Automatic annotation (TrEMBL):
Membrane disposition: Multi-pass membrane protein
PROSITE patterns, A to Z: ABC_TM2 (PS51012)
Protein name: Transport permease protein
Gene Ontology CC: one annotated term: ATP-binding cassette (ABC) transporter complex
Subcellular location: Cell membrane
Key words of the record: Antibiotic resistance, Cell membrane, Membrane, Transmembrane, Transmembrane helix, Transport
Length: 241
């Protein structure tokens, strides 16, 4: 645990020296949400349906990209190999990166949720639950980014994983068409996509449903986050090819 905390502190300290990246990480989801609101300025009913889902979608995508690219950069610079020569276990190393980016996700999600709830009037029934699901969505994006980075040799390859890992989830998560109106094969596909559960939770919050309706979403997102981090640690190579 101490090794994971030390790794997390190192990553956070590195981010402090890159203020432009910090601003992008913290504010870009909110900026995109505001832009999306004005795209549908004359169709408020459309934004009322999809706006809450954006609170899960934008942080998920951004954390996936930032995490995957950062991990590949750590590998190509030799930082990962140096860390792996220490007694720190692979799980602790990956856990440290996950913890660092989860802290970023906490601040990022709080900002975007506050703007969405009180400036854009998304009308979430329980904003604090929205914060939990926004953070979970960001953490799952982070975990998937860690996993994707294990299979990328360069930063460009890491970016190329987005069409494979993210776009299919956007198409079947219920953002464009409600899941229950999709063909059977797409509904089955949506079941194994974590973004489906993140967007479903926000749809449920906007509809004023009880917390019990979101228990499955909560458990599945936690399982995806833990599973992705575990797989990333198993695929972490001791030596860069």
């Amino acid at each position: 645990m101490s090794g994971a905390l030390a790794t997390a502190l190192r990553v956070v300290w590195q981010l402090r020296h890159d203020p432009r990246s910090v601003v992008m990480l913290l504010l870009l989801p909110t900026i995109l949400l505001l832009l999306f609101r004005y795209v549908f300025d004359h169709q408020p009913e459309v934004f009322a349906r999809v706006g809450p889902q954006m609170l899960a979608l934008f942080p998920f995508i951004l954390m996936f990209l930032i995490t995957s690219v950062t991990m590949v950069r750590e590998r190509t610079s030799g930082t990962l190999e140096r860390l792996l020569t220490t007694p720190l276990p692979r799980g602790g190393l990956i856990g440290g990166y996950a913890l660092a980016f989860s802290l970023v996700a906490l601040v990022q999600s709080a900002i975007s949720l506050a703007v969405g709830q009180w400036a854009l009037d998304l009308g979430l029934d329980r904003p604090w639950e929205g914060l939990v699901f926004a953070i979970l969505g960001s953490v799952v994006g982070t975990a998937l980014g860690l996993l994707a980075s294990a299979f990328a040799r360069t930063e460009f390859q890491a970016v190329q994983f987005m069409p494979l890992a993210i776009i299919p989830q956007i198409l079947v998560c219920g953002l464009l068409v409600p899941v229950d109106q999709m063909p059977d094969v797409l509904r089955w596909l949506s079941v194994v996509m974590p973004l489906t559960y993140a967007t479903d939770a926000f749809t449920s919050l906007a509809a004023g449903e009880t917390s019990g309706e979101r228990v499955t979403d909560l458990l599945v997102l936690i399982a995806f986050a833990i599973g992705s981090v575990a797989l990333a640690s198993l695929t972490l190579r001791r030596r860069t090819p």
